[in-house]
Amino acid sequence: MMCLKVETCYYLTKNCVVVHDCVFGNSYSDMDLHWEEDLRMPFFQQSNGSRSIHNVDQGVTTIMFKIGGVESASSLTSIESKIQKVDGVDSITVSPLQGQIVVKYVPEIVNAKSIKEAIEAAGVQVTEFLEQEIAVCRLKIKGMSCTSCSESIETALSMVGGVKKAVVGLALEEAKINYDPNATNTDRIIEAVVDAGFGADLVGSENDANKVHVKLEGIISPEDMAAIKQSLESVDGVNHVEMSTNDGKVTVSFDPDFTGPRSIISFIQGTSTCYQASLYIPESQRDTERNHEIRTYRNLFFLSCLFSVPVFVFSMVLPMIPPYGNWLSYKIHNMLTVGMVSRWVLCTPVQFVIGRRFYVGSYHALRRRSANMDVLVALGTNAAYFYSVYTVIKALVSDKFEGQDFFETSTMLISFILLGKYLESMAKGRTSDALSKLTDLAPDTACLLTINKEGNILSETEINTRLIERNDILKIFPGSKFPVDGIVVEGQGYVNESMITGEPTPVAKTKDDRVIGGTVNENGCFLIKATHVGSETALSQIVQIVEAAQLARAPVQKLADQVSKFFVPAVVLAAFVTWLGWFIPGVAGIYPKSWIPKAMDEFELALQFGISVLVVACPCALGLATPTAVMVATGKGASQGVLIKGGNALEKAHKVNTVVFDKTGTLTVGKPVVTSAVLFSRISMEEFCDIAIAVEANSEHPIAKAVVEHAKNQLPKHKTRTNNHEPVNDFEAHPGAGVECKLGAKTVLVGNKRLMKLFNVPVSPEVENYFSDNEKLARTCVLLAIDGKVAGAVAVTDPVKPEAARVVSFLRSMSIRSIMVTGDNWSTATAIAKEVGIENVFAETDPLGKADKIKDLQAKGMIVAMVGDGINDSPALVAANVGMAIGAGTDVAIEAADIVLIKSNLEDVITAIDLSKKTISRIRLNYVWALGYNVLGLPVAAGILFPIAGIRLPPWLAGACMAASSVSVVCSSLLLQTYKKPFAYSR
């Protein structure tokens, strides 16, 4: 056997699920380690490949070393003990499977170089080491209009010294930046965005959820505030304090392991009786920015209409209904009329005040040698406006000039574009509706119990959910929501977890069961102990993962990125060619004069066609096609119990044609039970069980736990016996076979037939028959040998999940092949595969062998999805095109996976693939909408139908089409909100 301990590496790359210390695993289950409920770690935030992450608020740095030379589990303890002795090292995790060592340390006490030297002194070769600290911040970006804008910001950020990676999301209008805090800071990063011509506000760091905002009321001098800050900074667990003296607000970052928001407020309150400290809940910055953007575009549109509607009436309506419009033709001087002056006066504030944003955007775009939608709008409106100004001046100085102004073109064009931006901003706000609904699931208040040492309830207090601290005892009434994740300490009933897991059937909960924040207590009254609060809750982690996924750029977006590079220059060239194509033939008399509308000449007709070409083309719709669909799909997936970690995973999943399943905990329930135990020697059953308990007691593997539980049931007084038993010594794991140890003077082996053969332990025909009989029934057999003789064996069965056969059948109907890869023996694997309908089986495969099988399938041209649940599956999950991790309850994030199936239900494998297919289809449809407007609109705007049917697209109408294209793309993405699971699994 191999002794391993499962831990989660925070802040590491997605393939870092690590192996460390002692947890049971062996060949008969192929180290099919199952994540037990009490051992699973919560979600974590990926750093996108960074080797070291600096936690700005907590002052603890996590760094990863690539290593070689760790060949056996026995060397792990030596490595850990030596590095743990280094002053300043908080924790160490060794992963021989991934070849990594992860160390958390306090940089004020020790540096990374010293830790590297300690690792090498322990006899481990460090093959890769990146000595840098990485902090993460998020910015709200203002002023982006298309893909070229996001690319420009990414380029500007990448040029800042110390910035390691920057990702800008167009639809989310946010940027996530990984940077070295020793080389730069957030002020410089924001300055780079501003220099690129965009607005930027700091949204926050990764640990904003572990902050409390406090409002201080009363007369507080700056000296008092400084004293409060100094006192707070001395509190254990407080990492950072920010003061706002003007409005008496304090923001405190804290470590939930040491303190909490309620304790912090109590501490502040206790420092003086001159003022009151209370919780202050600031409005969500994202919601504030979104509402501000919507209000801004709405106000600009209405203000523009205030001027553009009269201009439109003066130009298009009144001249057609004499005598009401005759006054517009009154000549002021020479050929200058009242109508021309009125239109000029009304158009000017629209062009230069309301339309100022287009000038600013164009300036910054041209300064960085790129072009965007603002450039097209500015060119089109300026061409119409300044030509109209020319006609006004010409009419003023000439008594014979008869020309037409286009002031209505400029004003109507800007008004329609602002209307489109207003509708687009409202539609974009709805793309994250599913995410907002998840965020709002947690209740605002909770009932906190005060309990004495005897367990008696002293008081019940209603508090704000944000004030809950770890280990608080909360009372949950029937019909109420659970405010945080916790463990039931008293009570029983049913809980509706559909809002988190998508599973509508209420789940029975009793003492020691886990509950998830945001779920609903259907009946019964519960007392729960808070175990995960703030950013640690499943709800917060789901939101963080989905937000990260929405920010990530899907590969399919490359098309829009490539097109955007030459889109605007191509449109400008097309507009110029269109103008020449109509102006030159008109002057040359190639087309009849009757084609030219009354009060126009060849130049004016050609100019209108050119302006229409400029404004009908919209790069915004092209840039929004992918990110809006990804935003809606990832949010919808989360509400359905499927966490998709980015557009890349979403895109790859739709191509999957082969699904590889692990067995234990994936196709099976993962909680095996002993079906029989037999003796093959004169040893008594009590002694057999006693030895099994002694050897397996420290293991968390489900098979080992099943053996121990069975043995305990056979020995009601096992505690007295094991306490007097000889200690276990010389414990040694034999990967793929079992474990060897000394129990007093006895040599004990626990494992499969391969282990017996390795130590030349004879296996009698009786034992062989027991093996074969149970393997035919899909049972795993574990042998226990003492001093070279088989003393007994147990048969363990792991029931197949009830939905497994249906899922395999449904995948077959989708032309997707199913394969099982397991470390269990061939007989058991074949029996399970036959039961669920899988024809292709690979058994007795170790963890790295699973990854090799994946690569072999990929070499044959297959797109492979791997579905697994244990640490032994992590290499295969990383190797697969799409890794799907089985999760459960609050601990659903297995970081090696691209997709997490929250409910641990195999049906969601189909949901993930089907949602991916629907999303990619929607993205392609969005591209059809975006490109369709341009493919159809550009020729019409250029006048291709004018000679045939007399149809032309006025510039203001072309602007309306441009605005409609962006709105239609966003609305198309919003249709993903109506997604339903495949009908076979709808409940």
TrEMBL record:
One of its GO terms (cellular component) is membrane. It holds the Pfam family HMA. Keywords: ATP-binding, Copper, Copper transport, Ion transport, Membrane, Metal-binding, Nucleotide-binding, Repeat, Translocase, Transmembrane, Transmembrane helix, Transport. GO terms for molecular function: ATP binding; ATP hydrolysis activity; copper ion binding; P-type monovalent copper transporter activity. InterPro entries: ATPase_P-typ_cyto_dom_N, ATPase_P-typ_P_site, ATPase_P-typ_TM_dom_sf, ATPase_P-typ_transduc_dom_A_sf, ATPase_P-type_domA, HAD-like_sf, HAD_sf, Heavy-metal-associated_CS. It is a multi-pass membrane protein; Peripheral membrane protein. SUPFAM superfamilies: Calcium ATPase, transduction domain A, Calcium ATPase, transmembrane domain M, HAD-like, HMA, heavy metal-associated domain. It catalyses: Cu(+)(in) + ATP + H2O = Cu(+)(out) + ADP + phosphate + H(+). Its EC number is 7.2.2.8. The chain crosses the membrane at residues 300-321, 341-359, 371-393, 405-423, 566-585, 605-626, 927-950, 956-976. It is found in: Membrane. One of its GO terms (biological process) is plant-type hypersensitive response. Belongs to the cation transport ATPase (P-type) (TC 3.A.3) family. Type IB subfamily. NCBIfam families: ATPase-IB_hvy (TIGR01525), ATPase_P-type (TIGR01494), copper ion binding protein (TIGR00003). This is P-type Cu(+) transporter. It comes from Centaurea solstitialis (yellow star-thistle).
